[in-house]
TrEMBL record:
Signal peptide extent: none
UniProt source species: Kibdelosporangium aridum
Name of protein: Molybdopterin oxidoreductase Fe4S4 domain-containing protein
GO molecular function, a single term: 4 iron, 4 sulfur cluster binding
InterPro entries: Mopterin_OxRdtase, Mopterin_OxRdtase_4Fe-4S_dom, Prok_molybdopt-oxidoreductase
Domain of life: Bacteria
Keyword set includes Iron-sulfur: yes
Domain 4Fe-4S Mo/W bis-MGD-type, chain residue ranges per copy: 2-58
GO cellular component: membrane
Keywords: 4Fe-4S, Iron, Iron-sulfur, Metal-binding, Oxidoreductase
Length: 270
């Protein structure tokens, strides 16, 4: 019998609440869960295509082993696991666990590694590991650690001023109810949306200010903006004194930036 189930989309960190109508193993219909406290019925197109990811005709349903002629043959899970375990054990015994690099079990959509990776690595005495977040998020985590000593999430829902640099959340989402929030900001005369992007995106179209920099020059644009704040003394000195150390060095540096030159370099009028 058809049945609606409550669940969440795990394809990005927003984890929107969804309701899924199942029929055997198929997701017959998917809709946003209006009762979900964070997403309140919102989803992007990715959640609505979950049945495609789950049941597309080219999805693998059994392990494939390469044959001598280069073609693949289907094998059972028991066979695959036994053969892989045998070979990994041989590598461990011949070269030590440190010669094995575990890759996987990253962030959203990759939670499964959490269930088995620790046990597998212990069994192999492996200790090198990485995952997709190392490629995607190293810079973000590093900056977060330097500035905030931990991970932070922006609160665009309530922000007075939102700045997006080379990002189009209308399409990429990445924060809760992205399209709804972007439209709310655009409609509210008391809030501003600033987009720094060489491309005229949907988000740029909604922006109060679109700084259409030349590709690869966003650093000059950002530096010039900070320099204006410093050189026109629009700085909140009390905030800096309470929340930062050594800001004088940064202010001193910014005081000497040639704003006109930087503006010309990034292709944005001063
Ligand atoms: S924004 Fe899209 S991908 Fe992210 S959790 Fe929500 S529905 Fe899934």
């Amino acid at each position: 019998m058809d049945q609606w189930h409550k669940s969440v989309c795990i394809l990005c960190a927003c984890n929107c609440g969804i309701e899924v109508l199942t029929e055997d193993r198929l997701f017959k219909r998917i809709r946003g869960d209006k009762d979900h406290v964070a997403s309140a019925g919102y989803t992007c197109n990715k959640a609505l295509r979950l049945d495609h990811y789950q049941n597309a005709s080219d999805r693998l349903t059994s392990p494939l082993r390469r044959k001598d002629n280069g073609e693949f043959e289907e094998i059972s899970w028991d066979t695959a696991i036994a053969e892989i375990a045998e070979r990994l054990k041989a590598v461990r015994d011949a070269h030590g666990g440190e010669s094995i690099f575990f890759y996987g079990g990253g962030g959203q959509g990759n939670h499964l590694g959490g269930a088995y990776s620790a046990a597998l690595m212990r069994g192999l005495r492996a200790w090198h590991r990485s995952n997709a977040l190392a490629q995607e998020k190293t810079g973000e985590f590093w900056v977060d650690a330097q500035l905030h000593r931990g991970h932070t999430a922006p609160d665009f829902e309530h922000a007075e001023v939102s700045v997006f640099v080379g990002k189009n959340p209308w399409q990429s989402h990445g924060f809760p109810r992205a399209r709804v929030v972007l439209k709310e900001i655009a409609r509210d005369p008391a809030r501003s949306l600033i987009v720094i992007d060489p491309v005229r995106t949907e988000t740029a179209d909604l922006a109060d200010i679109h700084l259409q920099v030349k590709p690869g020059t966003d650093a000059w644009c950002l530096a010039a903006m900070v320099a204006v704040v410093v050189q026109e003394d629009l700085v909140d000195h009390t905030f800096l004194a309470e929340h930062t150390t050594d800001s004088a060095q940064v202010l001193e540096h910014m005081a000497h930036i040639k704003v006109a030159e930087y503006a010309q370099r990034c292709g944005v009028s001063e």
